[in-house]
What we know:
By secondary structure, the chain is an alpha/beta fold. The protein has a domain at about 5-170: 2-enoyl-CoA Hydratase, Chain A, domain 1 (Alpha-Beta Complex), CATH 3.90.226.10. The protein has ten helices and ten strands. Strands 1-2-3-5-7-10 form a six-stranded mixed β-sheet, with helices on both faces. Strands 4-6-8-9 form a four-stranded mixed β-sheet. A hairpin with a 2-residue loop joins strand 1 and strand 2 (about 10-15). It is globular, with a radius of gyration of 17 Å.
Amino acid sequence: MTLVHTAHDRAVTTLTLDSPANRNALSAALVGELAAALTRCGKDGDVRAVVLTHTGNTFSAGADLRDPPRPESLVALLRQLVELPKPVVARVTGHVRAGGLGLLGACDLAAASLDATFAFTEVRIGVAPAVISLPLTPRADPRALARYCLTGERFDAAEAVRAGLLTMAGEDVDVILEPVLDGLRRSSPDALAETKSLLTAKVLEAFDRDADELTALSARLFSSAQAREGMTAFLERRDPAWVV
């Protein structure tokens, strides 16, 4: 079954996450397919920009707890989004949780409908947003990140814009994306690549400096006793033992 579908229209390639059984969670298979699709886009001279979107009511529910990707694979995917020599635009019409916010952070632009919701739920299952902090910390408001990463609270699209996690939000995400995609189509491919390189330099510095340490942290936390309890509780739809 194909988990990432590809469509092309006037120099813009759309990659659609289509794994409804697990709410587009980042399984090893989905991460692999998305990485392969991005590689093809990077090599295709007819692709001016990439739109990353989804089927169903969830952009991505984060790591697939039944078939999680290796931390190294997730780091590589996030870096690939940042380094791709084409702008990547996230198009969100549903919910975004945990690792899904890492995908948003790695995209150059991100737009969502007003009914989209967001949450860093890692702390509620006994882990931390370690790997996904790589693209997020250089780009998002630090006070907002502190609140939502520490509490796991849900927040709306307007707050996500304020926090720097989204570029824009509106009633109809396709309407607000029209001028953005038009601008990308009118831009020189080489100029886009060089401009993106300038804008992502600080993000890539974070990858170079911190990726190995955060990969090790993620692996350690996911194998901890509290994470096992948290993930078991999540799958059993109950509160973990530490809830008071």
